[in-house]
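Readers of this paper often ask what the protein records in our data store actually look like. An entry from our holdings is shown next, in its original layout:
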Amino acid sequence: MANHKSALKRNRQNEKRYEQNKVGRTRIKNAIKGVLQEIDGKNKAEVQNTLRKASKIISKNAAKGVIHKRAASRKVAGLARKVYQFSSA
């Protein structure tokens, strides 16, 4: 355990950020699952809408530093590819 005042504060800050980032990562996972469920549900109109929402959630969390911007880009591109394959089939 840290003994210095600044190290104790840093630990408190890290715990707070960890909890905030955990919420963001969970939102990302749920958004991705939502798009994949819509693809399984075969509803083309709703798939585009959920992809747009998921993309927004992923991008916002990347901007906040929850995940890296390139990781966010990969996730959005992968979802977009799946939606395109679904809509063209």
Notes: The domain at 5-88 is CATH 1.20.58.110 (Methane Monooxygenase Hydroxylase; Chain G, domain 1).
